[in-house]
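Reader question, answered in our methods column.
A reader sent in the components of a multi-part assembly and asked whether the whole thing could be modeled at once rather than chain by chain. We filled in our standard form and ran it. Here is what they sent:
COMPLEX SIZE: two components
ENTRIES:
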Amino acid sequence: MRHNKRFEFEVLSARSELQTRNNLLDWIHAMEKYDNLEIRCPRLGGEVTFAYCKRENGGLPCPRSIRCWSIYFPVESYLREKLTEDEWDNCFNQQPRDKIASIFEIVEKLKNKRQV
Amino acid sequence: MKQVKVLLTEEEIPRQWYNILADLPTPMSPPLHPGTGKPLGPDDMAAIFPMNLIEQEMCPDRWVDIPEEVMEKYLLWRPSPLSRAYNFEKLLDAPVKIYYKNEGYSPAGSHKPNTAVAQAYYNKVFGIKKISTETGAGQWGSALSMACQMFGLECRVFMVRVSYDQKPYRRLMMQTWGADCFPSPSTLTETGRKILAENPDSPGSLGIAISEAIEDMIGDENARYSLGSVLNHVLLHQTIVGQEAQKQMEKIGEYPDVVIGCAGGGSNFAGLCLPFVRDKIHGKDISIIAAEPASCPTITRGPFAYDFGDLAMTTPLLPMHSLGHDFVPAPIHAGGLRYHGMAPIISHLVKENIIEGRAYHQLETFDLGVKWARTEGFIPAPETHHAIAAVADEARRAKEEGKEKVILFNWSGHGLVDLASYDAYLSGKLFNYDLPEEVITRAKETLAQYPKP
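And here is the structure of the entire assembly that came back:
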């Protein structure tokens, strides 16, 4: 009897794990569907897919992506699932430089590279 | 017959640009050098801009003469008409008079040539032979291509690959005006080659295109870089728009209660609004509204008006609302949301409460852009839709308050090269997402583990 209870418990656990996995697969599958959704990018001035936005920043999401996509689907939870904590911080918790500072940073890098 | 257009003669065109820096109630913080942390000086900038433009960038004078050679080119399309939108007024059915400054009248179809022509001229005078720049969808790239051709300069445009493939007409405009337009990442620069080696199908980004444009010219004494927004001198060149509008309004005995422009990088907004900002600083009772794109509706506000916290750059935490219902994700640091391409002058004026920022969702902006085309005839650029949305918003408020208002806005460009965007909207491609309910429910469950704002 005791053995049966344990067996029952294991079956239930396995079933539950399988269910969780299936849910997760469904979830991933559903999320990949978003890749083809289109939105107008305010930075580029043209339509882009979510697949573009989520890799725009050197393989990481564009820092605007949550703001731009939140109305269409749960983009924040999706990105939290996909990104490591460091990647999330790099994308969304950094104080962005203004454009002028970014330009001069590029110039400095190029100058240094050429001097080396 | 009712007067629709207010025109200036060529003799009446303003002969000076207006520099808002001379009238700011508080000084702006200077941009800092990323290496030294000290304010950027002319020598730092000399590697990328010609000295005559750097002088303008730092110029404290209120008025700057427009050179005769620039004026000759301006006269190809300037002064641009100021028109009254009677048909759109009728549609809105509110106690408002709506005037718009038609900057779509330029050869490139937008306000961008106002600075492109000036920048090409100053580069030419300084002895520069080649200008490099980046462009997203090509509005800036095409304006600069035209301007460089006018002054006999070589023009090289790095266009973000995804747009290069999508927007053949703007690319063809650039090529027609004699510019070299490259998809970015390209094989022309080390930056581009490195990215292509890692990912041959890279669709590019604005950041990569900027890097390539700078790399393309750095170290070449005869080449410089050019930017179509953000910088002080770019905004300065655009002020001819607002000064013309002031003269045109004066001609018909009107003065606006509200002035509106859309704010991407800030140049078209600044063009119309900065001369009116001067009036406001000197005591005029006028609202000046910067309309920007937004995607996240707040629950507490009106039907399509949203927070502008990221432009003001003052909000450390900005709660975001999803799906327009009760879906409230975790707080996100505003740093990650802020659009860092905004002109510092505009951000400063927002912070000083001289300008009010409002953001509008693209669904409503497209809807109003189409309504505009169906009433006034001209098809607006999708960026211009945001200003039209702000006009409709103001009209609604006027109706609610039972108050008559004169509204002036910058119709910053036509949308004839953006018809693919209209196609996406009209075919429901942009918005018609039927999300399965269980996906939304699961998303809510996932988010439940994060702290609430």
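What stands out: Chain A touches chain B through 59 residues (CB under 8 Å). The first helix of chain A runs from residue 2 to 33.
Send us your own complexes using the same form.
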